[in-house]
Design brief:
The chain has 2 domains: about 160 residues, no CATH class; about 110 residues, Cyclophilin-like (Cyclophilin), CATH 2.40.100. The strands form 4 sheets. The protein has a 7-stranded mixed beta barrel. A 6-stranded antiparallel beta sheet has the order 7-6-9-4-1-11, with no helix packed on it. A hairpin with a 2-residue loop joins strand 6 and strand 7. The protein has 4 helices and 20 strands. The N and C termini lie far apart (about 60 Å). It is elongated, with a radius of gyration of 20 Å. By secondary structure, the chain is mainly beta.
């Protein structure tokens, strides 16, 4: 009998993700992948998984899961009060799961997204070289009740640790988002550029895996651009003056001015923000675009 995780309760929004679906942008297929690459990588590293092992990305309110066979798990990223059979466990540690055990989550304490890794990785279907869920590409795009997820069972009882692995949670609370100037940044006035550098912005209610909109409005006198390529991390300035940060499930082209681009660290940090959280942009060395 194969090992499976049964979803007893789906939680708010949880998806299977790996590093992403690379090489298909020319066909209009989004990259997808984990929103917080640092946390997902750490969860896999703690378990000595391969870097491309699929994990469960859990947003704010976690699911309730039942394991059919023994396994080892680790959780990194947001602190969502995880429990095994109602026994409180901690992030960034390896835990042994027995057949019939239930993993659940409670109150959100810190951050937005947690990552559940299982020894050997989740074994959902690989499509276009990735196990990442995306609506229209994969059969599923989020956890639903009674769905079952395959994994490789392990009967090893020894919990191995590695003292050289250290997870830092500082980025979960830091509001500094590191960015590069975008292709149209230098079309902004000096006043507009300074505003991006010096003011705080806050996360709007309109945010998901495709994009995170910011609440504040900027004066925008820029004209729309000819539709051009965009990537996860591209920050667009809309005609209404709203900033939109494109995330992992974003489209492949866009017609709004691309005024900034997030660094990988910036992507990880903003992925852990919730509605109302404050952020500021810290510009890295300028990149000149032709």
């Amino acid at each position: 009998m194969k090992a499976e995780i049964e979803v007893l309760e789906p939680g708010l929004f949880s998806t299977i993700q790996d590093p992403g679906r690379n090489g298909f942008l020319k066909y209009g297929v989004p990259m997808s992948g984990v929103m917080d690459l640092y946390a997902a990588n750490m969860a896999n590293l703690i378990l000595r998984n391969k870097p491309d092992s699929a994990v469960l990305e859990i947003t704010q309110m976690g699911p309730k899961l039942k394991f059919s066979h023994p396994a080892k798990i680790a959780i990194c990223g947001a602190s969502l009060s995880p429990k095994i059979n109602n026994y409180q466990i901690e992030n960034n540690k390896v835990y042994k799961i027995e057949a019939g055990d239930e993993l659940s989550f409670g109150k959100r304490l810190l951050g937005c997204r947690a990552y559940l890794a299982i020894s050997g990785g989740l074994k959902t279907e690989r499509i276009l070289k990735s196990r990442s869920w995306f609506e229209g590409i994969t059969d599923n795009f989020k956890l639903v009740k009674n769905i079952k997820l395959s994994y490789e069972s392990t009967n090893e009882s020894k919990i191995e640790t590695n003292a050289s692995i250290k997870f830092t949670s500082e980025y979960l609370v830091s509001k500094e988002i590191k960015v590069f100037p975008g292709p149209e940044f230098y079309l902004l006035s000096d006043k507009q550029q300074e505003r991006l550098r010096s003011r705080n912005f806050s996360i709007d209610k309109n945010n998901n895996r495709m994009a995170i909109q910011l609440q504040e409005v900027m004066e925008n006198t820029l004209k729309p651009i000819i539709t051009g390529p965009v990537l996860p991390g591209t920050v667009q300035l809309t005609p209404s003056g709203k900033l939109i940060v494109l995330m992992r499930d974003c489209q492949t082209t866009g017609g709004y001015p691309r005024v900034m681009h997030l660094s990988e660290t910036g992507m990880n940090r903003i992925a852990q923000k919730i509605i109302g959280d404050s952020i500021s942009f810290a510009f890295l060395e300028s990149v000149h675009f032709l």
